[in-house]
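Exercise 7. Predict the joint structure of the components listed below.
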Amino acid sequence: MRLVEVPLGNRSYVIKIGGGLLSRLGVECARLKLGQRCAVITDTNVGKKYARAALKSLAASGFDPVLLTVPAGEKSKRMAMVEQCYDRLAAHRLERKSFLVALGGGVVGDLAGFVAATYLRGIPFVQAPTTLLAQVDSSVGGKTGVNLQAGKNLVGAFYQPRLVLCDLDTFQTLPKREFVSGLAEVIKYGIIYDAVLFAQLERNLPRLLQRDAALLASVVARCCEIKAEVVGQDETESGLRAILNFGHTIGHAIENSSGYGKFLHGEAIAIGQVAAAKLSREILGLPSGDVARIEKVFAQAGLPVAFKANPARRKKLFAAMQLDKKVSGGEVKFVLAERLGRVKFGCQVPTELVARVVT
Ligand SMILES: NC(=O)c1ccc[n+]([C@@H]2O[C@H](COP(=O)([O-])OP(=O)(O)OC[C@H]3O[C@@H](n4cnc5c(N)ncnc54)[C@H](O)[C@@H]3O)[C@@H](O)[C@H]2O)c1
Ligand SMILES: [Zn+2]
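Solution:
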């Protein structure tokens, strides 16, 4: 088992990474000295496969868990679902010392984290992420929240978990498209922070795609270390944390403008990262050879690297970027790479240039 510490003073916590960890959920929660009553929030897909093991482990350690299962998919990340969860928690008489376990991907983690942040003004919660994206990204760092009609993640709270338990065995049932989509975030860490990781990914991509257990353990741990280091320095995104958004300005616009569901998040940000690499070449002088390496690694992972934009789609894409700008209250700012492993945030880019790289 690998351990990564997220250094946040008295809210610090550990990420545990390894095989078979779900069966240790109860023991790990007992170590945290949490209350006896608890709830496991999961979705219909993950629940079918892993709820029983999670509940059994909790019960074996003397906890009294209740299971809340929400429909799988982004639609569950909404206020109506939050309210349903509150009602179930109240019915099960969860009190201040009780805790929640988020068992699932980023949707369940964001939803359950927000419920934990707000029920009784905050009860402890544990992340048990089951997608690659959730293990390397969404379960770490304390961003929780739900969507509104008006847009994604518009309501939420920074609220840190007490523990993150990454059971690598859960990848065995993860659909290929979801796994590959998570790789887009993994590759991102190499580009923004660690040229050695990037080179390792280039070399070992076939083994990674076969979900080699030892390789995954080291790669997931390295990604968590990077996220922990960044979040440890800038928990609430007043600066450095923005580097995690490399490829996301264009990626989000692609997701928004093509209707949710067409592109998975990882697919959209793969295109966004290749576009950001090209912008980096124009603006910060990122060598063409590095741009080519970035494009190649995404393509070899089986991720899309370009957006086939007819004029109508292009118009929608730019409208989505403008909307993003309004929401963020000002300019559209980009994260760009100076070289592999080193990026700058807050870069301004002329719209014509963006139009040129999104083809
Ligand atoms: N909080 C953050 O910092 C942060 C960061 C990135 C993304 N997010 C959020 O994460 C969400 C996306 O997360 P995601 O990609 O994990 O999607 P997801 O939670 O929807 O999971 C993807 C699909 O895989 C299924 N699934 C999950 N684990 C499985 C397993 N082990 N075996 C079989 N099926 C499994 C799910 O039921 C779902 O159908 C978005 O809502 C996004 O906004 C949050
Ligand atoms: Zn992302």
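Discussion. Residues 69 and 77 are 13 Å apart (CA to CA).
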